[in-house]
Design goal:
The complex is a heterodimer of chains A (114) and B (114). Chain A has 114 residues and is an all-beta fold. Chain A has no helices and eleven strands. Classes of the chains: A mainly beta (114), B mainly beta (114).
Chain lengths: 114, 114
């Protein structure tokens, strides 16, 4: 059974650019969540989608957005990149929202903003 | 006050001993609790979840939950060098709309000394 797939694995972008990250959940999983991980802040929640609807949103500026498609694949977009956006972006999937089985994480996308 | 707090460590434990990892949470209404392990350079992987007061055992791992004290812990028996990792505590407030997200602590770095 394939795991959570995130693409690309690494990205280098320049300040002011925008970036789109992709996440394909485990087959049959309908909930997708996104987290930003940095050494100082740990895992910070960005948003969660279920059945193409945003269920939760974290405390990030509007430059961070996401969406989910009918096949449960999800994308997140960051516009007008800042140096502080450099981080590991992790996607996680679960069978449904609020599942007690927790999340299965992908390998992440390492974003570096220069 | 942080929603989920963990001692950042590092926590050093001799091989074969019991490692005890602790986590406190601020929202008394929180319902589900998760322990993740994250090796350096890897994504978090779920070890256990617990939602009832008391102990839950899975192999060498035991999760303990005390909702009255808003405290959850993870015990690792017969610690092995391969247990050296960062352990993340995560809390879910509920399963209704808006409360399903997992909020993570910043993690405790555990080192098992051979």
């Amino acid at each position: 059974k394939a795991g959570v797939t995130q693409t690309p694995r690494y990205l280098i972008k320049t300040r002011g650019q925008q970036v789109t990250l992709s996440c394909s959940p485990i087959s049959g999983h309908r909930s997708v969540s996104w987290y930003q991980q940095t050494p100082g802040q740990g895992l910070q929640f960005l948003f969660e989608y279920f059945s193409e609807t945003q269920r939760n949103k974290g405390n990030f500026p509007g430059r961070f957005s996401g969406r989910q498609f009918s096949n449960s694949r999800s994308e997140m977009n960051v516009s007008t990149l800042e140096l502080g956006d450099s981080a590991l972006y992790l996607c996680a999937s679960s069978p449904w929202t609020g599942s007690n089985y927790g999340y299965t994480f992908g390998s992440g996308t390492r974003l570096t903003v220069v | 006050q942080k929603e989920v707090e963990q001692n950042s460590g590092p926590l050093s434990v001799p091989e074969g001993a019991i490692a005890s990892l602790n986590c406190t949470y601020s929202d008394r209404g929180s319902q589900s609790f998760f322990w993740y392990r994250q090796y350096s350079g890897k994504s978090p992987e779920l070890i256990m979840f617990i939602y009832s007061n008391g102990d839950k055992e899975d192999g060498r791992f035991t999760a303990q939950l005390n909702k009255a004290s808003q405290y959850v812990s993870l015990l690792i028996r017969d610690s092995q060098p391969s247990d050296s990792a960062t352990y993340l505590c995560a809390v879910r407030k509920g399963s209704n709309f808006g409360n399903e997200k997992l909020t993570f602590g910043t993690g405790t770095r555990l080192t098992i000394i051979p």
